[in-house]
Amino acid sequence: MPTVELDKKRVIKTIKTELTDEQLEHEISMLGTDVGSVSTSKINVEVFPDRPDLLYEEGLAKNLKGLIEEEIGLKEYEINKEESFEAETEEPEARPVAAAAVVKGLTVNEKLLESLMQLQEKLHVTHGRRRKEAAIGLHNLDPITFPVKYRGVSKSFSFHPLQAEEEMTARKVLEEHPKGRKFAHLLEGYKKFPAWIDDNGMLLSLPPIINGKQTQVTPGDNEFFLDVTGYDKKIVMQTLNIMATAMADMGGKIHEVRLNGETFPDLTPDKMTIEKDYVNKLLGKNFSEDEIRKELEKMRFGTTEEIVFVPCYRTDVLHQIDLVEDIAVAHGYENFEPEIPELRGLGSESRLTFFEKIINSTMTSLGLVECKNYHLTNEKTLIQKMGRKKQPLVKATNPVNENYDALRNMLTPGLLKTLSNNTHHSFPQEVFETGKVIKREDGRIKESKRLAAILSGPKIGFTKIKALANSLFSQLGLNYELTRTRKPFLFKGRAAKISVKGKEIGWMGEIHPKVLTNFDLPHPAVGTELRLAALNVK
Amino acid sequence: MQDLKKSLHDHEKKILLALEEKKEMTEEELAEETSLPNASVSHASLWLYSKDLVEIKESKTIHLELNKEGKNYLEEELPERKALKEVKNGLEVKELKERLGKKKAKIAITWLMKKNLARIEAGYIELTEDGEEALYGKTKEEKALEYLKKPRKEEEVPDDILETLKERGKIIKETEETKRTVQLTEKKEKELKDRLELELGDKLEFKEKINVLTHRMLKSDEWKDGEWKGKEFRQYDIQAPVKDRKFGKKHFVSQAMDYVRKIWIELGFKEMNGPLINSTFWNFDALFVPQDHPARELQDTFYIEPEQADLPEQELVERVKEAHEEGVAGSKGWQYDWSEEEARKRVLRTHATVLSAKAISKLTEDDLPSKYFSVGRCFRNESLDWSHLFEFNQVEGIVVDPDVNFKHLLGYLKQFFGKLGFEKARFRPAYFPYTEPSLEIEVMHPVKKSWIELGGAGIFRPEVVEPLLGKEVPVLAWGMGYDRLIMDYYDIQDIRKLYSNDLKTLKEMKNWMRY
Questions:
Q1: B261 vs A30: CB contact, 8 Å cut-off?
Q2: How close A349 comes to chain B (CA, Å)?
Q3: Which of A157-171, B218-232, B471-485 bottoms out in mean pLDDT, i.e. has the lowest?
Q4: For position A538, what pLDDT does the model report?
Q5: Rounded distance, CA A213 to CA A165, Å?
């Protein structure tokens, strides 16, 4: 969730009603934004990714003014069409979809510029899916000669990018420029790179990588060219709308750009309908149509008797359910009386849980201590240290932590590791674990629950684990048979296969000395591992 | 004072009684007097000493006895005696060496000369006057050997004999013995009697006390006849440290899980189980999370390769696809090309909601209303440090009921969190991709007296429910990361401690005692 730091003065300046810090904090939080802190000059908020229109001071203020009923209903954004800016697109193969706008009459100081950059960056990450779906370029309008063109350029095209000392070819930008290296993967496989070029051949931007130096925005600038590129027209237009309306909220005037004859931006609100019964049934209320309209207007929707106008920056509204939530938010969650439901139906724990609990209490009654390990571990612990032969494990493709990249296919290694972390405590140590193991079998992934136990200490031998098995099986009302077996991690001649009703369900035996030394254990150990489901035969 | 009397062990009393008469006795004497084994006397004396009731004096005695060589000399005779006999009338030194053997002759000659018993002139040896006398009497050495025929204390050996023996060297063995003498000095006796509230002339009288009940006592006829009524039992020092019992124990996380499971069951919910590895179809797509959503990215989610997952029946897949591409139930949908390939990827479940989605898909009209819960491990691709763990426990519940609404959701939440011990709960708007309205729950921490964020809730979006259930029915859902509560209860700061399995800590931790 993006966290932003907002300038408290600018928020307060935009709202005419006087609010105390507590009121401000409460209203912001009731808007669905997590307030980190309100200090004398700053407001720290966490904005949910569906509401980028709250990421800047004037946007937050616009919505707060609705909530406190200082200014309600749809905010109209005018587009100046007197002076039209011409642009062309050749729809380059990479990022073929483009949109643009011009904003004038907004003198940016350092603070304003900072919040525009912050908004742009958060939009890149969330709405723009890390620039893949939408990349934004903000330029000083002054040096640009129209018409501008959006087209593909060759890799040897040379320009002076931002955050660089000199001109570079596009290829070099992707290879060496920090932003180039970070986003080069988005242009991988394309022969030509997309670029905005003005009538004099000056590069405005090389989306989604970087802008040109000549059109860099600096404090004091007051006219801007805004470009957005991507693959999906809806996303590109929404992103442009959020940027353009933000700049208008800050005091700018939006001007039209004609791109191949089509005019941008299109700030027309979406039209939706809402059914009173639907709202009331879901919210458990008895709102009148007027009340519903009032709540929606507080959330800055426009309404007529039949239609709800959804502001162009509200990209999160897909269904009337989204309006229902806004009605609830406007009404205030605290104004819904919790209704304790009539408790119908019987609860139950699953058979699996029930049985696992029986196993657990049986093992603890036999004096063992339950341990819990991660499902994720590594090949070294599961295979090498156990002396098992190499086998395909179920692994995570992309683990952040390399020591935890494989899912356990056995519980015993985890318990041996547990004991190796406990050698400074007194012996004997008797531990068990129940839990899932994940195996590859015939190209399929299989999950099953297991029980494993390890007893370790001076003079502990096979008889101890057999005694444990005797007690366990008799308490479960089962008979079991032992057959001699061999396992790479067990002592030869002290290893047994355990069967119930002729079906193999696990093993028991003495842990091989080489395994003990691999885990650095100071005393002999015996163990068993059983399939849990196989114990549950009734 | 009564306490002192009661806390005295029988052995201590016996020793005190013996000392009252004799005032000062060695441990040996005490053992004889009290008929107790030496070790018991030793222990009991030390206990009395630590209670400041007696003095203990230590004395060292050296015992002397003949060693192997000394005994040999005593049995046979000293080399010089042999030589005396041979030299009686004088003879060649050479001849003497032949008769006694070279080595013995050398020792004998040395001693004869040293004590002036013989003289040698030009290779000829003959006795002196002292020698003549010695021939018919006994030498000092012989007298000393005779004296030490039986072992003696060093202190009782006359000085001249001791000197002779030591001078001769290598014929005696010394052993040192430490002896303790226990004393009941007048001062101690007075203190003891003061503490027992006795006059100085009064005799100490202790009744025989029973220490351990034995099988024989319990089965004896006298005891059956009630003789135990007259017996006294020794009181124990109840503050004395004891060794812990050996015991088995359930892991505290398991205990905490049992607790929350119980709460769900009491509220009438049925438990859901399911695999840890799921298709992205169930983990994301069925929950209306668009395929390019950041939550699906590699850096947040564990993907499992290379196998592709099976998808459920085609009809359901088609409905989910439609929900994403064009929208269902009046929704605009996400408007993109939904990829079946993407939905077949496998992930370690990122939330328990995957179980809820599956449960809803299995419901029919007749099953409604239905309530389900799950408690279990979920995964996120994260590094490991004190506040981050790649495995976490989530609890989640759903209510599928045509007759419930937002207010019921709040009611369920109040009830659920109330049972968890949080009387006060408040709700704040929030965002989750699969619920609308959505909210976050904050509860008042009863001890810390501050609001803490404890979970998320909402009503499943129509785009989620419609494809799964075939119709739009309100599904109330809420869940929370449970580890935070466990850490709060056990005051654990480092999240890794949940699974560090330190056996000592596991055993010493209190049980989950919340009702």
A1: no
A2: 5
A3: B218-232
A4: 62
A5: 10
* Per-residue confidence band for B405, with pLDDT thresholds at 50, 70 and 90: very high
Cβ-Cβ contacts under 8 Å, B383 against chain A = 400-401
B147 or A473, greater pLDDT: A473
Higher pLDDT, B201 or A283: A283
Q: Is B324 on the interface with A (CB under 8 A)?
A: no
- More confident call, A199 vs B236: A199
CB contact under 8 A, A318 and B327: yes
Please tell me which residue of chain B has the smallest CA distance to A335.
B407
Do A79-264 and A351-535 fold alike per CATH? no
Chain A, nearest residue to B391 by Cα: A374
0.90 surpassed by complex ipTM: yes
Is A318 close to B437, i.e. CB distance below 8 A? no
Q: Which residues of A touch B405 (CB under 8 A)?
A: 281-284, 339
Thinking of the domain A3-67, which architecture would CATH place it in? 2-Layer Sandwich (3.30)
**Mean pLDDT, contiguous 10-residue spans, chain A (538 residues):** 84 89 88 83 86 92 94 95 91 96 95 92 90 95 95 94 92 93 93 95 95 95 96 94 96 95 94 96 96 97 95 94 96 94 85 94 97 97 96 91 94 98 95 96 90 96 96 95 96 95 95 96 97 83
Of residues B364 and B123, more confidently modeled = B364
Supply the pLDDT for residue B232: 77
Q: Do A421 and B430 touch (CB under 8 A)?
A: no
Min Cα–Cα distance to chain A from B514, Å: 19
Torsional sign, CA A316, A321, A325, A330: positive
Does B383 contact A401 at a Cβ distance shorter than 8 Å? yes
Domain boundaries, given as residue ranges, for chain A: 3-67, 79-264, 270-332, 351-535
As given in the structure block, the two tokens for residue A463 are: 């008889």
A284, B436: Cβ pair inside 8 Å?
A: no
Q: Residue B59 forms beta bridges with which residues?
A: B179
Q: What is the pLDDT of residue A439?
A: 94
Q: Which residues of B touch A333 (CB under 8 A)?
A: 410, 427-429, 439
CATH says A351-535 is which class? alpha beta
CA-wise closest residue to B69 among B61, B60, B81, B78:
B78
Q: Is the pTM of this model over 0.90?
A: no
Q: Are B263 and B480 in contact (CB under 8 A)?
A: no
CB atoms inside a 10 Å sphere around CB A389: 7
Interface of B with A in 45-104 (CB under 8 A): none
B172 interfacial to chain A (CB closer than 8 Å): no
CATH 3.50.40.10 holds for A79-264:
yes
- Domain A270-332 classified CATH 3.30.56.10? yes
Chain B residues with beta carbon closer than 8 angstroms to that of A131: none
What structural domains does chain B harbor?
2-54+184-209 (no CATH), 66-172 (1.10.10), 253-276+350-508 (3.30.930.10)
* Rounded Cα distance, B115 and B134, in Å: 11
Residue A282: predicted pLDDT: 97
Residues of chain B with Cβ-Cβ distance to A376 below 8 Å are 302, 379, 390-391
Cβ–Cβ below 8 Å for A349 and B277: no
Q: Residue B246's closest chain A neighbor by CA?
A: A367
Convert the pLDDT of each residue in A436-480 to its tens digit: 999 988 878 999 999 999 999 999 999 999 999 999 999 999 999
Residue B330 — φ and ψ, nearest 5°? 85, 10
A439 → chain B, closest CA residue? B277
Say if residue B369 is preceded by a cis peptide, omega within 30 of 0.
yes
Long-range residue pairs from B39-48, CB within 8 A, at least 24 positions apart, any chain: B40/B11, B41/B11, B41/B15, B42/B180, B43/B11, B44/B9, B44/B11, B44/B12, B44/B14, B44/B15, B45/B15, B45/B180, B45/B182, B47/B9, B47/B11, B47/B12, B48/B12, B48/B15, B48/B16, B48/B182
- Partner-chain contact B248 A364, CB within 8 Å: yes
